[in-house]
Amino acid sequence: METEFTPWASLGGGALIGLAATLLMLLHGRVFGATGILGGLFRFNDPADWAVRAALIVGMAGGPLVFWLATGVMPVTDLPISNLAVVIGGLIVGVGVSYGGGCTSGHGVCGLARGSKRSMVATATFMTTAILTVTILRHVWGA
Predict the structure, then answer these.
(1) Given pLDDT bands bounded at 50, 70 and 90, which one contains residue 1?
(2) Is residue 1 part of a domain?
(3) Is residue 53 part of a domain?
(4) What is the DSSP annotation of 41-79?
(5) Which burial class, exposed, middle or buried, applies to 106 when counting CB atoms under 10 A from its CB (0-12, 13-18, 19+)?
(6) Domain tally for the chain?
(7) In this structure, is residue 108 part of a structural domain?
């Protein structure tokens, strides 16, 4: 079975996420939870906080541009599912984030690094759910 595993790109991306989370904690005393950062863009009560959130979102969304500037080619994104499936999956993740009190970056990166028991349970839950979902979709349904 052929995979799209890219160990060096994955290592680099993980290192950048870890660096961003560390710098956000050191410089602003904030946990890097991407969903919470995005949600905070819709609150305009603190201009300095809003500016930090906006800079983080622009930085995350600007990744392909940085890749293009560094390599001369845009990264290829080939999803084996429909746009509707992406939207439905995003909505399901959004509901999970609401009930779980955070997202993978908040719990999986920052919470685990801080030794949070709640984050350990949340990370174990979403990793188990992801593994089961992929197993069922690929090996039971054959999608």
Answers:
(1) low
(2) no
(3) yes
(4) TT--S-HHHHHHHHHHHHHHHTHHHHHHHHHSSPPP---
(5) buried
(6) 1
(7) yes
**Cα distances (angstroms) measured from residue 75 to each of 9, 59, 69, 91, 109:** 12, 16, 11, 25, 24
Within a domain: residue 2?
A: no
What SS3 state is found at 30? coil
**Residue 3: which of 134, 140, 125, 127 has the closest Cα?**
134
The pLDDT score that the predictor gives to residue 2 is 67
Residue recorded with tokens 């079975």: 1
Average pLDDT in the chain:
88
- Alpha-carbon distance 77 to 74, whole Å? 9
Could you give the CA distance from residue 117 to residue 127 in angstroms, rounded to a whole number? 15
Residue-number span of the structural domain to which 28 is assigned: 7-140
Report, as an integer, the average pLDDT of 68-97.
87
Residue-level pLDDT at 143: 62
Q: How many CA atoms lie within 13 A of 52 on its CB side?
A: 19
Matching residue, tokens 């970056």: 105
Which tokens in the block code for residue 92? Answer: 């399901």
Question: For residue range 12-53, what is the model confidence (pLDDT) as tens digits?
Answer: 988 988 998 999 999 988 888 888 888 888 888 889 889 999
